[in-house]
Design a protein that fits this description.
Length: 123
């Protein structure tokens, strides 16, 4: 079995030889735990995506029981994170409005050429 800490090239592969037989090379479970503790390391979570953090606080926290409000998943994000998310959502909505206007402008041009008086559209 080949294991790796992550998919990054900087993390080397480690080969673990497994037997096909149903025998276990460890004397007891404690040896297995020690071996796996030395060879396998937990991957640490870097945190939530800023959008997801704002969504968890704003949309989900009011719906979960009060006993879970202190959980880090539902904690209020910093003002910096909230501002960043708000700005980027505004940028996305402006982009969508411009895209929609362009889409319907093309549609109007095609309809004008198809059903108009035969002249090119001056749009």
């Amino acid at each position: 079995m080949i294991l790796r800490q992550s998919n990054l090239a900087e993390h080397p592969k480690t080969v673990h030889k497994l037997r096909n037989t149903k025998t276990w090379k460890f004397q007891n479970f404690r040896e297995f735990v020690e071996y796996s503790g030395n060879m396998l390391r937990p991957v640490r979570c870097l945190g939530l995506n800023p959008y997801k953090a704002v969504e968890m606080w704003k949309n989900y926290r009011p719906n979960v029981p009060d006993e879970y409000h202190s959980n880090w998943l539902y904690s209020e994000p910093s003002a910096e994170v909230k501002g960043k998310v708000k700005d980027e959502k505004g940028d996305r909505s402006e982009f969508r409005v411009a895209l929609k206007a362009k889409k319907y402008a093309d549609e109007e041009r095609v309809e004008y050429e198809a059903f108009g008086d035969g002249k090119e559209a001056g749009l």
